[in-house]
Design brief:
Layout: E1 4-6, E2 11-15, H1 17-21, H2 23-30, E3 43-45, H3 46-50, E4 54-58
Antiparallel strand pairs: 1-3, 2-4
C-alpha cells in the first residue's frame, strides 16, 4: 500500500538530482509533466520524500 504526502500551502514538489538518477522515479515524474497533468506537483508517495527523490519548494 502506498502512503502519500501532500505539499504544504503555497508549496510544491520538484524532483531532486537523486530522483533523476533513479530511472523509475524519473520516468514516473517526467511522464506526468504535461500542461494538463501535474500529478506529482502537490502529492507524492511518502517514500519519495523520505528517500530524497523529491523536495518541497515554494510555488
Amino acid at each position: 500500500m502506498t502512503t502519500w504526502t501532500s505539499a504544504g500551502k503555497g508549496k510544491r514538489f520538484v524532483i531532486t538530482a537523486l530522483g533523476l538518477e533513479k530511472s523509475q522515479i524519473r520516468g514516473k515524474y517526467k511522464n506526468t509533466r504535461t500542461s494538463d497533468s501535474t500529478r506529482y506537483d502537490h502529492k507524492v508517495p511518502t517514500s519519495w520524500v523520505t528517500n530524497g527523490y523529491v523536495m518541497e519548494v515554494d510555488e
